[in-house]
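Task 17 of the worksheet. Students: predict the tertiary structure of the chain below and write it out as structure tokens. Keep your answer in the requested format; marks are given for formatting as well as content.
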Amino acid sequence: MSGKDDLTSLRLRIEGVVQAVGFRVYATNEARRLGLDGWVHNCADGTVESLVSGPTKAVEAYVAACMRGPAGARVTNVDLHRAEPPAEKGFRRLPSF
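Model answer:
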């Protein structure tokens, strides 16, 4: 299967020790390596939020990477929600809230 039918867009909320450990840089590098669109940013409540869109297998690999996190992170939960794809192509690290 390929084309539009194979595209997945998700919004992730990552909880745990995920700020001040390089999580946004890690997530951005993973998303770009996988050829995904979207963004990642720190939230005021200590979580990290991400919107990711692309081929389903690549999105699944990104989610798995976010569940692991970079060295120093301790991910305790990842909430996943279906979402609309981002308006812009490419993957960006957004400023913290």
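Marker's comment: Residues 3-84 form a domain with the Alpha-Beta Plaits fold (CATH 3.30.70.100). Helices lie at 23-34, 56-68.
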